[in-house]
C-alpha cells in the first residue's frame, strides 16, 4: 500500500513538472509568434551596441532634440565582422534620415564608405538621394535626403555632425 502511494506521488510529481514545462514551452512559443522575442532581441542587440557607442548616439539625439527635432524609428544592424550601423528618421520622415556607421578600423571605414557612397566625406549624390558625409577615425555620420524635401536639415546637420565627431574624437566608444 505504501509503495502504491509513493508511486502515485512520484507519478503526480512527474506529471506536474511536465505540465509546468509544457506551459513554459507554450508561453515561449506564443512569445515567438507574437514578435515579442524579436523585439526583445532587437532591443538587447541595440543596447549591446549602445554600451560601446551609447554616448555618441545619445549626444546625437540630444543635439537634434535641442533644435526641437526628433530622431525616430531607430534601427540597428551589425555585419558579420562587427561593423555597426544605426539609422534614424528625422521627425518620422522616411525621406530624411541620419545613419551612423561605426567600423572596426579607419581603413574599414574608408573602404565601407567608398563601397556605399563612392566617397568618404562631403556632398554625394547616390541613388536619387543627396548625402552629406562627415567621417573621422572609425565613425561616419551621414545625412540623407530624398524626394521633394531634399536638404531640409542640411545646415543643421553641417553644424551638429562635425561637432559630435570632434567631441568624441571620431571614436564612438570613447
UniProtKB/TrEMBL annotation:
UniProt name for this protein: Lipoprotein
Domain of life per record: Bacteria
Amino acid at each position: 500500500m505504501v509503495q502504491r502511494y509513493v508511486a502515485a506521488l512520484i507519478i503526480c510529481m512527474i506529471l506536474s513538472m511536465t505540465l509546468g514545462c509544457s506551459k513554459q514551452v507554450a508561453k515561449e512559443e506564443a512569445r515567438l509568434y507574437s514578435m515579442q522575442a524579436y523585439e526583445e532581441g532587437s532591443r538587447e542587440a541595440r543596447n549591446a551596441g549602445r554600451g560601446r557607442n551609447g554616448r555618441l548616439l545619445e549626444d546625437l539625439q540630444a543635439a537634434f532634440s535641442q533644435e526641437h527635432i526628433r530622431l525616430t524609428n531607430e534601427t540597428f544592424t551589425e555585419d558579420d565582422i562587427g561593423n555597426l550601423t544605426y539609422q534614424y528618421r528625422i521627425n518620422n520622415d522616411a525621406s530624411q534620415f541620419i545613419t551612423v556607421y561605426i567600423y572596426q578600423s579607419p581603413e574599414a571605414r574608408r573602404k565601407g564608405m567608398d563601397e556605399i557612397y563612392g566617397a568618404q566625406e562631403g556632398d554625394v549624390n547616390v541613388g536619387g538621394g543627396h548625402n552629406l558625409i562627415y567621417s573621422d577615425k572609425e565613425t561616419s555620420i551621414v545625412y540623407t535626403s530624398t524626394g521633394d524635401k531634399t536638404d531640409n536639415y542640411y545646415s543643421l546637420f553641417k553644424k551638429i555632425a562635425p561637432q559630435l565627431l570632434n567631441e568624441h574624437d571620431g571614436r564612438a566608444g570613447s
